[in-house]
Design brief:
Layout (H helix, E strand, L loop, with lengths): L2 H31 L7 H48 L14 H40 L3 E5 L5 E4 L1 H7 L11 H5 L3 H11 L12 E3 L8 E10 L10 E10 L1 H36 L5 H32 L8 E4 L1 H18 L3 E5 L7 E4 H18 L5 E9 L2 E7 L34 H11 L4 E5 L5 E8 L3
Parallel strand pairs: 7-9
Antiparallel strand pairs: 1-2, 1-5, 3-4, 4-5, 6-8, 9-10, 10-12, 11-12
Length: about 475
């Protein structure tokens, strides 16, 4: 039964009693006015009892309605209020009880529908938040930079794997701990907090500090950048800032580049100074009138060799500067007979072979097809590879130069008997200004440009240049060029 019907029935019952009482009194009064005779005391007693009965019944019904009617209205609302508060509270309740199919029950059912929609939206929102959190955690974990997040109280709330590795502490020992407390037993963190205490933040005029970590194998260099976190709206008694982010960026490559440039400038200075000093001394000997003609010819030949060496070095520097500027390599590609290229290259390095008493065996098939290449660039590459083979091979050894068809390419290889190159350096030797340990066999003072430029030339012609070598077993440098179709 609905609440509305209950109220209507209660009011109807009260009205019925009142009408009954009024009607009885009305008919009694009319009966007396018409001069009813023969009334006895018993009739008056009955009338009085009937009126009193109606009065008592009306009073009882009125009192009952006064007590019951508010209770019937308020009790379901009170239960609904309690259920809604329980759902809104920290309890696990997710629905309100639907007691009866009345108006309050309809309100409870409507509240349940709203709660169901809110729960569905909440689950969707939570799923999106968890997905976003997982993405952010994956991003933070995959960063190659160290990341340490401190809240406004100086507590560590985030530390990615790189930061943990640099600090030498697992994340479990950092998260939730005060940075000052951890710094008391962790020297790297103690050094990181010094710029924070000095308010050396990112974007100011003070350079960001660079730290070295000797306990790592390569002693990397990391630059520390500290950025403040802006708080949304600080409450009363709360600090205005939202904490700080400590970001450590690996600048080892830049440091290595600076060191390499310094070493390169020193090497180039030495390489330029040596031939210039030799040329200057040779010119002084030529100016001496006592120098005989044969000696003059030998000195002139030496001056020519030193000049060619200087021109080759300057040419390498020009090629590197053009490549760094993004200029395309100018090629004059045409059908090339590799036998002619090999002949010219070997004639060029013949004096160096004779000086070290080296032999050069060449295996060039007579049916070797022509290659699609630039004569000048290919000859330069071959001369550079032969010069390296001569430089690193011990005296009285045999070098092997071979050219064979290789699918739709022709492959040229130079095999020396030098100290060899360990596999971990096979890629590094083709980088510009590459420096290898002395144990690998790199000649001290080498500019480190020849192999890099050679690979650029071969790649521009559609070929490849690589090395096959092992420490103590010599080296084989190979390059390919497209065949003429």
């Amino acid at each position: 039964m609905s609440l509305k019907l209950k109220i209507r029935l209660s009011i109807f019952l009260l009205l019925l009693l009142l009408l009954g009482l009024g009607g009885y009194a009305f008919f009694t009064m009319r009966y007396l006015e018409n001069g009813a005779g023969g009334l006895e005391q018993a009739d008056f007693d009955i009338a009085r009892g009937t009126v009193l009965a109606f009065l008592v019944a009306g009073t009882a019904v009125g009192i009952t309605m006064m007590v019951r009617l508010p209770r019937m209205v308020v009790r379901p609302l009170h239960r609904l209020t309690v259920d809604v508060e329980r759902v809104a509270g920290p309890d696990a309740a997710t629905r309100v009880a639907v007691g009866k199919r009345d108006e309050v029950g309809s309100v409870a059912a409507a509240v349940n529908r709203v709660l169901s929609q809110a729960q569905a939206e909440r689950r969707l929102t939570l799923a999106e938040l968890f997905a976003e959190r997982n993405r952010m955690e994956s991003l933070v974990r995959s960063l190659d930079e160290g990341l340490l997040l401190l809240d406004e109280h100086g507590t560590i709330v985030l530390a990615n794997p790189v930061a943990c590795d640099l600090l030498g502490r697992p994340a479990a020992e950092l998260l939730g701990q005060s940075a000052e407390a951890v710094a008391a037993t962790c020297a790297p963190l103690r050094e990181w907090l010094v710029p924070l205490a000095e308010a050396n933040l990112a974007g100011d005029n003070v350079p960001d500090p660079v730290f070295t970590f000797p306990h790592h194998p390569r002693a990397p260099h990391y630059q520390l950048s500290i950025s403040p976190i802006e708080a949304a709206t600080p409450g009363p008694g709360q600090p205005a800032g939202g904490g700080h982010i400590l970001c450590l960026r690996n600048v080892s490559d830049f440091k290595k580049l600076d060191e390499t440039k310094s070493a390169f400038l020193a090497t180039i200075s030495h390489e330029l100074k040596t031939p210039l000093a030799s040329i200057n001394l040779s010119l002084m000997l030529l100016q001496n009138e006592r120098t005989d003609p044969a000696e003059r010819q030998r000195i002139a030949s030496g001056i020519r060799e030193e000049t060619q060496r200087l021109l080759q070095m300057v040419g390498q520097l020009i090629d590197v500067s053009r490549l760094d500027a993004g200029a395309d390599i100018k090629l004059n590609v045409q059908p090339v007979t590799l036998a002619d290229v090999v002949r010219y290259a070997t004639d060029t390095v013949r004096p160096q072979l004779d000086d070290k008493q080296l032999r050069l065996d060449m295996h060039l098939p007579e049916t070797l097809p022509a290659a699609h290449a630039d004569v000048e660039k290919t000859t330069w590459v071959l001369i550079n590879l032969l010069a390296n083979a001569i430089r690193y091979s011990p005296p009285d050894e045999t070098l092997l130069l071979r050219a064979v068809p290789w699918g739709d390419m022709v492959r040229v290889s130079i095999h020396d008997h030098g100290p060899g190159i360990a596999p971990e350096y096979h890629k590094r030797i083709f980088q510009r200004f590459a420096e290898l340990p002395a144990s690998v066999g790199q000649r001290q003072g080498s500019s480190g440009l020849g192999l890099s430029i050679s690979r650029e030339f071969i790649t521009a012609q559609g070929g490849q240049l690589w090395v096959e070598s092992a420490a103590g077993r010599g080296s084989i440098f190979l390059f390919t060029l497209p065949l003429v179709t």
